[in-house]
Amino acid sequence: MKQEIEHYTNRAGGKGTMHIERLLTPKEMGSHVKMYARVTIDVNSSLGYHKHEDDTEVYYILEGHALYNDNGMERELKPGDVTYTPNGKSHGIKNIGSEPLVFMALILLK
């Protein structure tokens, strides 16, 4: 069940605008899933570097190109790439392409 799209500016100290379309309600996700969503980061925008406490997160890149910061190590991402951030670790992602960056995000509670 598709939910309303949420819009954020400068999320987690990032730059610009991002949009989160939560695809399941909390009831549908159950007690171990915090979020399952399609995330869009606008051109020249980013989700700031942040630490995960009591959860883990996975990204699956659908469209666009990104610079991903995985605990201080940066790498470029393209469609089909997957990231994993375990509990207690940090990450951030920046759209470095000329089109919106779109990815699936799954946050699982510890």
UniProtKB/TrEMBL annotation:
InterPro entries: Cupin_2, GPI/OXD, RmlC-like_jellyroll, RmlC_Cupin_sf. It comes from Amedibacterium intestinale. The keyword Transmembrane helix does not apply. Keywords: Metal-binding. This is Cupin. Pfam families: Cupin_2. GO terms for molecular function: metal ion binding. SUPFAM superfamilies: RmlC-like cupins (SSF51182). Signal peptide: none annotated. Residues 38-105 form the Cupin type-2 domain. CDD domains: cupin_TM1287-like (cd02221).
